[in-house]
Amino acid sequence: MTGGITHYPRETRTALIIGTGMGGLTAAALLLKAGWRVIVLEAQTYPGGCAGTFYHRGYRFDAGATLAGGFEPAGPHTRLAETLGLTWPVQPLDPAWVVHLDGHQIHQWATREAWREERARHFAAGESFWQTQERLADVAWRISQRHFPWPPLTFNDIVAVARAATPAVIGAAPMAFRSVAHLLPRSASPQLRVFLDAQLLISAQTTAGSANALYGCAALDLPRRGVCYVQGGMGNLAQTLVTWIRAHGGEVHYRHPVERVVVQNGRAVAVVTKAGAIFEADVILANVTPWSLHQLLNGAVPPGLRRDVQHRPPTWGAFTLYVGVRAEALPPHTPTHHQVILDPGAPLGEGNSVFISISPADDPTRAPAGMRALTLSTHTAVAPWWQLDPEAYLRRREAYTQRLLEALEVVFPGIKSALHLCLPGTPRTFAFYTRRWRGVVGGFPQTSLWQARGPQTGLSNLWLVGDSVFPGQSTAGVILGAARVVAHLLGKPTLLQAKV
Questions:
Q1: Which of 117, 150, 169, 170 has its CA 20 to 30 A from that of 438?
Q2: 72 DSSP assignment
Q3: What is the pLDDT of residues 239-289, one digit of tens each?
Q4: Which InterPro entries does this entry report, sorted A to Z (predicted)?
Q5: d(Cα 323, Cα 155) in Å, to the nearest integer?
Q6: With the CA atoms of 290, 291, 296 and 297 taken in that order, what torsion angle do they form, in degrees rounded to the nearest 10?
Q7: Is residue 497 part of a domain?
């Protein structure tokens, strides 16, 4: 160090990462470990993006994602921690969450024995489906533990996919052309179908009739794959990576919103921030949506990316409530997460299916003394929120607020009288704070492995990471997607090989 400036050898390559989502931070940490110079630019004052935690009136609310899975011994979080030599601030959850459906409480137990007993009580006629689901989930999760660069972009990727084709994978291959609904027996109850639809909507962004069978079966197995509570809120996963990056010589700059990616001679050579600062780089990784990247390229959009944003429909948005409640109103030892389906006969999302997350009593960092922090969320289409005049927008926001509070009353009757704070968030809110185009969240619905989006952008040194890149959803998914991009940049077969 001389005068506060780090001098790098001329041969050191520089990577510029746009955004501190878990995908961007994972890529930054892995490149830094490989000897690259790393610069991360974040528009907000805290890391994590849609998996961040923000501060408001003494509360620390999870902005979007509230549940983290993939911490089992061979899970993506565990493998990343082993690679970097860090420890996540997490504690396991059991049950992972409780589903409130048609007067029943279905516990998503973490242990397989307890879950098999639970599903037998509620879905006795569906056992053949569950056995198939477990078998296919095991295949899909084992694939995720190997180097499986999907969709393949190079000849080496094709070779790696072929090497991952074990007999079990080959036997499950026909399921790549089917949906989860195709696995259901005729004897399956309507309640089982609604239950599956609700689980897949939060984990695959679509329902059983459309969810790819292999991906969907793995998603249904998420509660058995190391679901954890993050001490201090979900954003502490991202903060753990930021701390590691800075401790190892990387740069993370907050309040640096990127306004433009500079393209010269078919390469992305720099970014320009809102303040006019210019950061040059050899490689740029954008932890943004394809639509947001399209805007950042400011007319220099490759044809493939232009077609992509024109033909892919917008993904889901979220309506959220950030609620502060008197702790005494919550039963002792209540599970941390709940999912409520208000009307099993109506379409899910739009306030009819609601996910509720509660800060634990033993985490005093999340709320003022005597209070608890809750995040409620439901899937919502983004377009209607942008078509309203101010008065209609406020009416719609209030209507959705009441729907979500109705779901909260299902879990905790009478709790409305104990509310201390109720702060709504719409897709327009997400667009403002996360800079995601129209406030889309969650990534693309996993309907077909053949339509999965890879990290390519049409420029050889500009890559996408985050939930738009397969496998997409969840912090576990974006870790895998980012590791795949870094492995490609480093010319290595894999970076997060499972040890078990």
A1: 150
A2: S
A3: 999 999 999 999 999 999 999 999 999 999 999 999 999 999 999 999 999
A4: Amino_oxidase, CrtISO-like, FAD/NAD-bd_sf
A5: 50
A6: 70
A7: no
